[in-house]
Amino acid sequence: MRTRLLQSILTQLQTLSAVIPLVVQQARTDKIYEVFVLTSLLRALREIGAQLEVRDADDQPTGVLWLRLSPGLLNGPMNAAGFVLVEYNDNKFEIHSGLRVGGYSSVLHELDVSIIERSDAMECREKKENPEHWAVKALIECKFYGSKLPLSVGRQHLGLIDEFGVPMALLCANSFSSRIEAVLNGRYSQRARGFRRVYFDPDLPWRNEYRVPLVRHFMLSPLNEETEDRFVGWLAEELRHVLG
Amino acid sequence: MNKDVIKIMYALQRLGLHWIADQIRDSIHEQEPDVLRTREHRGDDWQIGIALRVLHSYMVELPIAFSHSRERVKTLLGVALHIEDSHDLGDDTIQAVLRFGKVLRQAWPGGSENYDKEFGRNK
Question: How far does the CA of residue B23 sit from the closest CA of chain A (Å)?
Fold first, then answer.
């Protein structure tokens, strides 16, 4: 690398690190990406004509969508987060970010972005309980990496699928991993398990003929508008079925 | 390891961004066997590519993701977005981010056109 360019990189790094403190903690980077994916979900919901309203932790309309940095409980006394109330075809749901939900094992797991049945969420608020797997209509795992995704991300996603068995489970990432793709495709091939395949690949036609609930969506980035637009369009179609 | 990559990692550590430096190091170690197996060994420029890709992700892509998210929440929901313990990014900051992206593009080992193919945006 030319010395002038290297020096410019080093100088600007110093400037940027001071003005974008959101990169100082790794936990923040994951959260920022999670929120970006959440906004893609909101776009898709708008496309299908869903009504959206922001609520605070007490389930009251608010002018600020307040999201916590770390995963938490629906009824967390210190940092209960806001959510988006969704109404679609007379059905109501809530979109949460970083919510801990009980899986089949009753162990609580963090769901990066989730769509929860409104009635279940309201009951949980009233009874001060945690939502359980049956309340989850969709979950989205969001992974932001500077380089290739580690294989452990794919393994974690499969583990989450086993714990929830939801109608829609997506793995969204800004990066790519052929090994994760191979692992997920291996699971897709287990047709005997009766999975409904939903497969999105920007290089393939909109929908494949096979359908199972495992989806991976790589290279989803705010800098790649075309891919995101296609993802939003695909997601809108899927949401019609899942929420309809 | 490539001496320029070492300088970048050292700068990151000095700025308290150890975890980004670690990710560069880990990515290089992880990808080294594949690089050595799949192509002729032509120096260590590929390591610069990894370092710049990591910098691009965290110092360009991520701030833009944050900025887009705030705008979208405002447009789609008509409310402000607030993430716990996070501050807003002003226009000056976004301009600084975009300038940094241009420097990374110039420094990209395969040339600027190759950078555009990789990231397809941020010109």
Answer: 7
Cβ A35–B81 below 8 Å, yes or no? yes
**Does B73 touch chain A if contact means CB atoms closer than 8 Å?**
yes
CB-closest option in B27, B100, B121 to A16? B100
Least confident of A1-5, A184-188, B79-83: A184-188
Please report, for chain A, the start and end positions of each structural domain, with discontinuous segments joined by +: 24-243
Q: List Cβ neighbours of A171 (8 Å cut-off, separation of 6 or more).
A: A140, A141, A143, A153, A154, A157, A180, A184, A214, A215, A216, A217
Please tell me the distance from the alpha carbon of residue A195 to that of residue A155, in angstroms, as a whole number.
17
Give the minimum alpha-carbon distance from A196 to chain B in angstroms, rounded to a whole number.
31
> A234: phi > 0 → left, psi -120 to 50 → alpha, else beta; which?
alpha
Q: pLDDT, tens digit, for every residue of A149-200?
A: 888 998 898 889 889 888 888 899 998 888 887 887 776 555 434 344 444 4
What is the band of B41 on the pLDDT scale with cuts at 50, 70, 90? low
Indicate the pTM of the whole model.
Answer: 0.89
CATH code, residues A24-243: 3.40.1350.10
The ipTM of this complex is 0.89
* Residue B51: pLDDT band with limits 50, 70, 90: very high
> Are B79 and A54 within 8 A, CB to CB?
yes
Structure-block tokens of residue A211: 């359908």
Beta-sheet pairing, A51-55 with A168-173: unpaired
**Nearest residue of B to residue A147 by CA position?**
B54
